[in-house]
Design a protein that fits this description.
Length: 334
């Protein structure tokens, strides 16, 4: 590790408290986490924050042990500034501030969405992809242009993951992946209102309709099949529009919903028709994790993007297009 810069990253925007360690040569030395799992399947921000506070010390120790380093070897400390749930973000930020202060190291405030993209680029080797970011709290299509990740399209109401989670919870089968698993036992499609406007999507009408059909006695398996196909088709359609518009040749799907096999299948087929490449991100780097914050924090630190502790506020509605990404100035060399 001699000569390498080391960044420790803390993720705490929602269910996951994660600590990762990344080096300037692009090695992930550790990626440890603990996940808050609520009894009734809904997330309670304050309970999640309490969970994160209670596991922080243990997860941090595990990460250092796995990385084989002591705290003194850390050159910069990064944390998720947003977007995310306020109480959860504040817990991670507090741990990061305490570490930065105690070690007298620079602090880096990372955008969670940018971190999903950067760990995706690192793990696939893609330089300049069109990205579909799909998770429980986020749905957007983005790509780099002139120093930032620009949002080409996004959800106009709820996130795709939230739509599927909410359906599963309300019909009693539980959140994802339950609806997708049950979809394999579906026998017939029930028409649902798909809403795509340009590169924007809307899922709330779809959810309302699927739930009302469930109440009137339609088979849940058929509704799972119809709903997942509708959601994934809409996402694939807006991604295809973005690919055609930009003419780029690489596609990434990032965020928790990228674990969906069916979505990957649809995206892979569509991308093939455009002569572009689609690569999947390894499972442990797909969902929320500390490694993505460590790696993006490292890129930011190397570009002088640190923040004084007293100005390091969390930003629950932090958008990815507010962040400058100078390392993308020449993606062929980053
Ligand atoms: Fe995420």
């Amino acid at each position: 590790m001699r000569g390498e810069v080391i960044c420790l990253g803390i993720e705490s925007s929602a269910h996951t408290f994660g600590v990762g360690v990344a080096t300037s040569s692009g090695r992930i030395l550790a990626n440890e986490l603990a996940v808050y799992r609520p009894v009734d399947s809904g997330i309670h921000p304050r309970e999640a924050a309490q969970h994160h506070a209670s596991v922080a010390h243990e997860v941090l120790e595990r990460a250092l042990e796995r990385a084989g380093i002591g705290l003194r070897e850390v050159d910069a400390v990064a944390f998720t500034a947003g977007p995310g749930l306020g109480p959860c973000l504040r817990t991670g930020a507090t741990v990061a501030r305490a570490l930065a202060y105690r070690l007298n190291r620079p602090l880096v405030a990372v955008n969670h969405g940018v971190a999903h993209i950067e760990i995706g680029r690192l793990s696939t080797g893609f330089r300049d992809p069109v990205v579909l970011y799909v998770a429980g709290g986020n749905t957007l299509v983005t790509t780099h242009n002139a120093g930032r990740y620009r949002i080409l399209g996004e959800t106009l109401d709820i996130a795709a993951g939230n739509c599927l989670d909410a359906f599963g919870i309300k019909v009693g089968i539980g959140p994802m992946p339950a609806p997708e698993l049950l979809a394999s036992r579906g026998e017939r499609y029930v028409p649902l209102p798909m809403k795509v406007k340009g590169m924007d999507v809307s899922f709330s009408g779809l959810l309302t309709r699927a739930l009302s059909l469930a109440r009137t006695g339609h088979r849940v398996e058929d509704l799972c099949l119809s709903l997942t196909e509708a959601v994934y088709s809409m996402l694939t359609e807006v991604l295809e529009r973005a690919l055609a518009l930009t003419g780029k040749k690489e596609v990434l799907v990032v965020g928790g919903l990228a674990r969906s096999r069916r979505l990957s299948e649809m995206v892979s087929r569509m991308v093939g028709l455009h002569g572009a490449s689609f690569r999947q991100i390894p499972d442990d780097l797909l969902g929320d994790n500390g490694a993505m914050i460590a790696w993006t924090g490292l890129l930011m630190y190397l570009h002088g993007m640190t923040v004084p502790i007293e100005e390091s506020r969390v930003r629950p509605r932090y958008r990815i297009d507010e962040v400058e990404v100078p390392w993308m100035a020449d993606p062929s060399r980053s």
